[in-house]
Amino acid sequence: MSYLKSSTRLFLLVGVLSALLLAIGSLGLYGITQSNAALKTVYQDRTVAIGLLGDMQHQLLRGRLLIDASVLDPRPQVIAGNLAELTSTAAVTSKTWAAYKATYLTKEEEKLAAKFEQDHINFEQQGLAPAVAALRANDITSVQGLIRDKIHPLDANLQLGLEGLMQIQLSVAKQEYQVAVDRYDTVRLVSMAAIASGVLFAILTGLAVLRARRQELMVALERQYHADMALQLEQKNKLLQALEESEFRWKFAIEGGGDGVWDRDLQTGQESYSRRWKEMLGYAEDDILPDHREWESRIHPDDMEAVLTSDADYIAGKASRYEFEYRPRCKDGSYKWILSRGMIVSRDPSGKPLRAIGTHTDITQRKKSEDAIRLAAKVFKHALEGIMITALDGSIIEVNGAFTTITGYSRDEALGQNPRLLSSGRHSKEHYQQMWRDLTQKGIWVGENWNRRKNGEIYAQAQKISTACDEKGRPLQYVCLFSDITAAKNHEQQLECIARYDSLTKLPNRALLGESLAQALMQTRRRGQHLAVVFIDLDGFKAVNDTHGHDAGDHLLITVAERMKAALRDGDILARLGGDEFVAVMLDLADVDASAPMLNRLLVAAAKEIHYDQARLQVSASLGVAFYPQAIEQTPDIDAEQLLRQADQAMYQAKQAGKNRYCIFDAEQDRSVRAYHESIESIRRALVEQQLVLEYQPTVNLRTGEVIGVEALIRWIHPQRGLLPPAIFLPMIQDHPLAIEVGQWVIENALLQIERWQQVGLHIPVSVNIGERHLMGPDFVQLLREVLATHPGIKPGSLGLEIREACAADDVTKVSQIIQKCRAIGVECTLDDFGSGSSSLTCLKKLPMKYLKIEQNFVRDMLGSSDSLLILIAVLKLAGSFDLKVIAEGVETVEHGLMLLQLGCELAQGYGIAHPMPADELPGWIKQWKPDPAWGDVAMAPC
Q1: Is the separation of the CB atoms in 771 and 811 below 8 Å?
Q2: For 577-603, how does the pLDDT look when each residue is reduced to its tens digit (9 = 90+)?
Q3: Is 24 in contact with 191 (CB distance < 8 Å)?
Q4: Is 244 left (phi over 0), alpha (psi -120 to 50) or beta?
Q5: Considering only CA atoms, which of 817, 864, 808 is closest in space to residue 836?
Q6: What value, to the nearest 5°, has the Cα angle with vertex 468 and ends 464 and 474?
Q7: Pairing label, strands 851-854, 885-889
C-alpha cells in the first residue's frame, strides 16, 4: 500500500514533473517560435531600411549626373531641363527620407540623420530654390554660379551622409541578428532540460528540425543580404555606366560645339586631351602625350605664373572657380587665346580632390574683336573729326569730344536732339532728300554741308554718313564723321583765283585757258565759224631780265600784256602760260585770212618800246598760229591740247625763221615729223624685241679663193614688212642717239658670233660698219674697249671696223686719232665706199687704214662705162701709192672678176661671189666655195 502510495506519489511526482517539464517544454517551443519570428523580423526590417537608403542613394547619384552635366554644358536650355529633373529628384529623396525616418531610424543613426536632414534642407533652400529663381529671371550666370558653388558641394555632403547611414544600418542589422540568435540558444537549452524526461527523441528531432530551420534562416538572411548588396552594386554599376555614357555625350556635345575637353587625374598627373583640344592648336592625335606637363610646357611665358597660380589655387580649394584666359603655343609656333574652364568631379571620403574635367574654348577672334573695340573706343575719343551717332529716327545717341569742339554743343546738350539743331538754312529741301536717298539705297552719303554752331556762326563741314547694320544687313544706327573745313573753303576761294589767273598780269593762266578754249571750240562748231590759237613767245626777254633785273622784266611783261590785250577784240582771249609765253584765242573768224590784221597788231604791240626808270626796254614776239576747224583728212579729232601743241610748234618755226613774225602751222610737215618719231620708236622696239639680226657676206681673194673675212650686215625682221635691208631704216636714226645703241648691238652680236665660230674651229675676221654719230661720240673707244673686255677669248684682229669716206672726211684729225686708238687694242679699220665722197689725198695720208673699199657703183658700172673704169684705175693706183689693200665691192659677174684681176685687184666682195647669209650657213659655204676657173688664168697687171 505504502508502495503503491509511494509509487503513486512517485508517479504523481513524475507525472507532475513530466507535466511541468512538458509545460516548460511547451513554453520553450513557444520561445523558439518567437525567436524564429524575431529573426525573420530583423531580416525584413533591415532589408527594407537598406532598400530605402539605396533608393535615396540612387536619386542622389542621378542628381549628381544632372549637376555635372549643367556645369559642363552651360547652355540655358540644358540647365533649365536639368534643374527641373533635379527638383523632381530632390522631392522623391525628401519623401523617401520621411518614410525611412518614421519607421527605420535607429538610435545610433540619430546624430548623423540630423546632419543629413539639415544638409538636405540646405541643398533645397540654399542651392536648388535660388537656382530655380535665377533661372526664371533668366540669370544664367547666377544659375551657373549656384550650381558650381552651392548645389555641387551640398550634393557631395548628402552623398557622404547617406553612405554613413547605410553603414550604420548594416551594423545594426548584424547586432540585432546576433541578439536574436543568443535568445534562441537560451530557450533551446531550457527546452532540452524540460523535455529530457520522455520526449528526448522528439525534442532532439525537433531540435534538429529547429537547428536546420535556424540554419536555413541564417543562410536565407545572408543570401538576401548579399542579394541586396549585389542589387545595390548592380544599380551602382548601371549608374556609373550611365555616368560614362553621359560623360561621352557631353564631351561629344562640347566638341561638336567647337570646344576641346581635358581630363586630369590629380593623383598621378596623367591628363588626357580630346581630339578637338589638339586640333585647335594644330596638333595631330599623337603629337601630345597624356601628361599634365604637356599643357604646362606650352603656356606663353607671359601667362605662365598667373595660369599656374590659378590652377593650383582651385585644386587647393583657395578659389571657388576654375576659369582663366591664357595663350598656349600652337604647333606652328604661334599663340592662340584660350578660355579654360573646369571643375573637380571626384573626391575621396576625406574630401581630397581626385579628378578634374574642363573645357578649352578658342577665344582668339573674341580677343581680336575686343582689341578692335578698344581701338575703336580710343579712335572715337581722340579723333580730330567730329563723330555723331544717331538712332534710325535721327535722334542723337552719342557724340565725341571733337563734336563739341566743332559745334559748340556739349554731349549732354546734343544727346536726344535731332541733327537739325545744326542746320544753317543754306541748303534746299532737295539736298537733304538726296542725302536720305543715298543713305537708304547705298548705305552711305559723302558730301559737304554748311552748318551753324551753337554761337550762331556759319561753318563749312565735310562729312560722311554711313549706315551701321547688324549681321543680317538690317540698319541699326547712322554714323556721321565730319570735320570743319571753313578755313579750307576760304583758302580754296583764294586759291581758285590764284589757280585760274596769273598773279603778275592778272590774265587767265593755263588752267583757265584750257577750259575757255574747250568752250570756244564747242561754240565755233555750233556757229560754223573759225577760231585761231596764237602761241606768243617774247624775243629778247631774257636779256632784259638779266640786264635790268626782275623788276624791269615784270614791268615789261605787264605792259606788253596790256598792249596785246588792247590789240585783240572784245571776246577774244589772252592768257599767260608762264615766263614770256602767252596764248591768244581769236574767236568768230569768218575765215583764216581774217586773223591777219590782229596778228600784225599783236606783233606791233609786243615790239613797242617801253620806258622803265631811265632805261628803254624793247622786245619782239614770235607767233605760232593754228586754226580750227582743220581739214578732216589732216586732223579729224583735234582738241584744245593738240591746237596748243600745233601753235607751239609753229612758234618755234617763227623763231627759226628770224623772229618778230608769225608762222602758220603746216599739218603736212607735222605728219612728216610724227612719222619720223614713229619710225624711231619702231626701230627702238625692234632692238628691244630682238627683231634685228646680222647676216654675213664673205670677202675673198679672186685668184686663190681664200676667204679673208666677212662683213656683218644688219637686217630687220619686220613683223609686217618682212626682212628689211639697212638702207630702209638706218638713215632714219643716223642723227639720233638710237644710232649708238644699234651700233653697240652690232658690235656685241658680231663678237658673240666670232666666239661661236671659234668654238667649231672657224677663225675668220669680221668687220662691222660704224655710223658717224657712233664713231664721233666722246666715249666710242672706251665703249669698244669695254665690250672687247667681255670677250677675252677673241684674238686681236678678229674684229674690224668699216668707216665711210664721208664720215672720215668731215674731221680727218679726230677720225685719225680714233683709228690709232682702235689699232692699239687690236681693231683694224677699213675706209668704206671710197669714191662716193670728196676726200682729199691728205685724208688718205693721215688715216692709218689697212684696207680701202671701192664704192660698188664704180665696180658694177666699169664694164659699160669708161668713166667708171678710169676712176677705178685711178683709185687702184692711188691706193697702191699709200700701200693700202683694195677691196672691190659690187662684183656681180665673172667678167667683173676678170677685169679686176687684169687691173691688179684681187680682193673682192659681191653677189657674184656670195649673197649675205645667216651665220649658221657660212661654215658650209666656205667648205664648198671655189673661185671661177677663168680667174686663175688671168695675168695680174701691176698697180
Answers
A1: no
A2: 999 999 999 999 988 889 999 999 999
A3: yes
A4: alpha
A5: 808
A6: 135
A7: parallel
